Structure formats: structure tokens, C-alpha cells
Amino acid sequence: MKKLAVLLSLTLAIVLLGGSALAQGDNSVYFTTYYSNARNAAAPDETIRIINDGDTGNWLWESFYVFDDSQELQECCACGVSPDGLLSESVNGELLANPLTGKVNTRGVIKVISSSSSGAPVANTPAPGSHGTATHVQHALGANYQITETPLADSNLTSSEQTMLQNLCSYAITLGSGSGVCGCTLEDHDF
């Protein structure tokens, strides 16, 4: 009887500890990745995929900030993803299709802030619940390219970084005369 009580106590402890760990969730709101070999007719396109884990039951908006390899913002936008939804964005077709400078970008950095603010890359309210991956095109020997897929890097969002990204995006929208604003693939569509 004593062994049964110990076994039940251990089982209960595991369930409670596991339950509390799951209830805490992942509070990540800021992610980074890179793109390479983009806008190259010989190379396949890269893709950013983000899911809303549905924990809050609310829509999330993914604010994208796309930089070239000279650290210059080229495009920004915010794309919505519903609870338990999947957002798939083409790097060439959406995130690099309308660069602010008109420059054809082949490599750089993409930063993403998960936000509860409806479609506003210039005024984010960071909110957890997003998880994502990015495909990367690696140039192999000859004319071959290999595709890898990695999780978006969980990064630390400081208030100064958030303000800088929002200000750069605001300037791009204001000064770009239509350039510098990326597009969004509808959530239930792929490319």
C-alpha cells in the first residue's frame, strides 16, 4: 500500500509539474532570420512560415522588417494570422518584391515582431503566440542549390530596437511613395 501511495504521489507530481510548464507557454515576440541567393532566377524561392499557436484565441499580426546586407531597410509590412492559422510568405514574391531603394536584394536580414496591433508595423503591441521557420537557399557545387529549413531565431526585443524598427518603417512608408511596403499572402493561400 505504501508503494502505491508513493507511485501515485510521483505520478501526480509529474502531471502537475508538466501541466504548469505547459501553462507558462512561450513568451517569444521577436524573431530574426536571414535570406540568401534571393531574386536569382537560377535559385528556388525562400519561404517564411509562421503559426499562431492559438493560446490567446486572438489574431496576431507579424510585422516584417526586411534589410539588405548593408543594414538598410528595404521593405516592411504586417500580415495577419488567425488562431491556429498558418502564414506563408514568399521572400521573393512578397518580402522583396517592392524595395524602397529599387535595388535588387540578394541577401540580408528579416526581423519579425509578433503583435496584437491590427496590421500596424509602425505601432506594435508585442504579443506572444507565434512560432516560425524559414527556408534558406544554399549554393552548392555547380549550378545546384540546396534548401534548408530552420526555426526563426528567438531574439531579445528591446524598447530601443522596437522604436527604431517602427520609425524606419514609418519613414519608408512616408517617403517611399508606394515603394518599401511588402505584400502579404492571404493566410489560406500558398504560392
What's the short version?
The chain is globular. It is of the alpha+beta class and 191 residues long. The protein has helices at 2-24, 91-95, 159-175, and strands at 30-35, 47-52, 60-68, 73-81, 86-90, 108-115, 130-139, 145-151, 153-154.
Assign an overall shape: globular
The CATH topology: Hypothetical Protein Tm1070, Chain: A
Number of strands: 9
Q: Could you give the order of the helices and strands? A: HEEEEEHEEEEH
Task: Report, as a whole number of angstroms, the end-to-end distance.
Answer: 62 Å
Physical arrangement of strands within the biggest beta sheet: 4-3-6-1-9
Structure in words:
The protein has a single domain, classed as TM1070-like (Hypothetical Protein Tm1070, Chain: A), CATH 2.60.290.11. The chain has helices at residues 2-24, 91-95, 159-175, and strands at 30-35, 47-52, 60-68, 73-81, 86-90, 108-115, 130-139, 145-151, 153-154. The chain has a 5-stranded antiparallel β-sheet with strand order 4-3-6-1-9, covered by helices on one side. A 4-stranded antiparallel β-sheet has the order 5-2-7-8. With 191 residues, it is α+β, with helices and mostly antiparallel strands. Helices cover 24% and strands 32% of the residues.
